[in-house]
Amino acid sequence: MWIPEMQWAQVAEKAGGPLVYKQIPVPKPGPDEILVKIRYSGVCHTDLHAMKGDWPLPVKMPLVGGHEGAGHVVAKGELVHGFNIGDAAGIKWLNGSCLSCEFCMQTDESQCEQCSLSGYTVDGTFQQYTVGKAAHASKLSPNTPLDAVAPVLCAGITVYKGLKESGVRSGQTVAIVGAGGGLGSLAVQYAKAMGICVVAIDGGDEKRAMCEQLGASAFVDFTKSKDVVADVRDATPGGRGAHAVILLAVSEKPFQQATEYVRSRGSVVAIGLPAGAFLKAPVLSTVIRMISIKGSYVGNRQDGVEAIEFFERGLIKAPFKKASLKDLPHIFELMEQGKIAGRYVLEIPE
Which residues of the chain have pLDDT under 70? Predict the structure, then answer.
C-alpha cells in the first residue's frame, strides 16, 4: 500500500497556539505499533487544553492534537498480530502503556507512569496518518461508521467508565452535569442503555431539546434555575437526590454543588477537568451521609471494548456535526464560548 512521505496536519507550534495548517512528515510505526490513515477525528475539550498548555502536565510541543481518530490500518510493525492491513481501527487518548507495571497488570493502564497520550505527549489524530500502540488501539468491525464512532473513542469510553465507577445501578438515578456537551450527550445514552434514570443539567434550549430527545427524564437549566440544588433534588424520586452525580462541567461551581443534591450513600464522580479548579465539600455532611467523592479517568482496554459494543449494537448515537480539518481553529473558538451542543467530527482529507 502506497504511503506518502508528507501529510497535512494542524500543528500547535507553541503553547497557546495559534494552530498552523501545514505539511509534516508521515510517521513510521515501531515494532509494536500500527499506522492508521485517519478518516475522521472527534474534537474534545481536552484538545483545547492541550493546545493552550493550561494543565500542570508536561505537553509535547510542537503538537498535533486529537485523540478520537477512526480510520484504517495502512502499515504495522513486525510484532503486531491483532491487526491486518485494511482493518478499521480507532486511536484513543491512551496511546500506549508499558503493560508490565503493577497498574497495567491490574487493568489500570491509565495510571502507568510510562503511558503515552494521543494529542498530548505524542502526536494525535488531527493529521492524515497517526501511529498508535496496537495493544491499545481499538479494532472496529468493518461496517462501523467511522465518523459516528469517533466520539465514542474518548467521550464514550470515558463516561461509560465513569458510570461504572459511580456504582449506580439499573433503576437508580444519576445526575449528569454538562449533559448537553460532547461527553454528556453520550453519558445520557449509556445511562439509559444501562437502565438508569437521568437528570440532565446544562444550559440552553438547544441542549434541553437534545437531552430530552436522548432519553433524559428531567432537565435542569442552570442558566434559568433560581436554585439548582433544589431543582435537581425535586427531579429525583421522593426528592431525596440522585444516587450518583457525573461531573462533566468545564467550570468549577458545579463541582462544589454536587454533594448537596446527591443522596446519602451516593457517589460524586469527577470527570470534567476545568483548569485550576478544586473539589470542596463540607466534611460533616459528607461523613454523616457517607458520600463518596472520586475521580474517574479514561477506561481501560476492556472498558473500550464494551463501550464500542454498545455503539455497534445501535444503543449509542453520538450527536455530532461534521467539519473539515481546516475548521479546527474556529471549532476551538466555539468551544471556548460554550456554543457547541454534542460533538464536532473533523473529516480528514484523503
Answer: none
Closest CA to 275 of 18, 49, 12: 49
For 278-315, the pLDDT digits (tens) are 999 999 999 999 999 999 999 999 999 999 999 999 99
The rounded Cα 333 to chain-centroid distance in angstroms is 19
How is residue 43 annotated by DSSP?
A: E
The reported pLDDT for the residue numbered 318 is: 82
Residues 250, 49, 103, CA angle at the centre, nearest 5°? Answer: 90
Q: What is the pLDDT of residue 21?
A: 98
Count other C-beta atoms under 10 Å from residue 296's C-beta: 19
In CATH terms, the superfamily for domain 6-152+319-347 is Medium-chain alcohol dehydrogenases, catalytic domain (3.90.180.10)
pLDDT attached to residue 182: 81
User: Which SS3 state, helix, strand or coil, does residue 266 take?
Assistant: strand
Q: What is the pLDDT of residue 261?
A: 97
Which homologous superfamily is 156-295 in? Answer: NAD(P)-binding Rossmann-like Domain (3.40.50.720)
Label residue 232 exposed, middle or buried (CB < 10 Å: 0-12, 13-18, 19+).
Answer: buried
Q: How many degrees, rounded to 5, is the angle at CA 72 between CA 6 and CA 43?
A: 75
Model pTM? Answer: 0.91
Nearest to 282 by CA among 229, 220, 224, 222: 229
Ranges of each domain in the chain? 6-152+319-347, 156-295
DSSP-assigned letters across all residues of 67-133: --EEEEEEEE-TT--S--TT-EEEE-SEEE--S-SHHHHTT-GGG-TT-EEBTTTB--SSBSEEEEE
d(CA 333, CA 329) in angstroms, rounded, equals 6
Q: Which three cell numbers stand for residue 160?
A: 461509560
What pLDDT does residue 174 have?
98
